[in-house]
Write a structure and sequence with these properties.
Length: 108
């Protein structure tokens, strides 16, 4: 479980897929019962400000959550990261799925 993530903060998850992800489409959804955030690479309908492949040959990419996007979430949220290989195969895999806690901040 990921710890010390606060509602209302900017969040950056640096991820390692353990395989080369150059040219991959990557999507991420974070959700609780009443709210969800969807992020994607530019080639999957998102932008580099949502998910950026920083070292494709080594499987490194970052997911960016803007401050305020986490407001209104329950304390525990789910996250799923999906990758799709480049064409012509275009195979889809769930690379990660888990749960993490969002703490309330004292300073607002």
């Amino acid at each position: 479980m990921i710890n010390s993530i606060y509602k209302g903060d900017n969040i950056e998850f640096e991820c390692n897929a353990d395989i080369a992800v150059t040219g991959f489409k990557i999507k991420c959804i974070i959700w609780s019962a009443d709210k969800q955030i969807l992020k994607a690479t530019a080639n999957a309908g998102g932008s580099d400000s949502e998910i950026l492949i920083t070292d494709g040959a080594n499987g490194i990419f970052s997911i960016f959550i803007n401050k305020g996007e986490t407001l209104g979430f329950a304390r525990f949220v789910d996250i799923e990261i999906q990758v799709e290989t480049p064409a012509p195969l275009s195979r889809v895999y769930t690379g990660y799925r888990g749960t993490f806690a969002l703490k309330d901040r004292k300073i607002t």
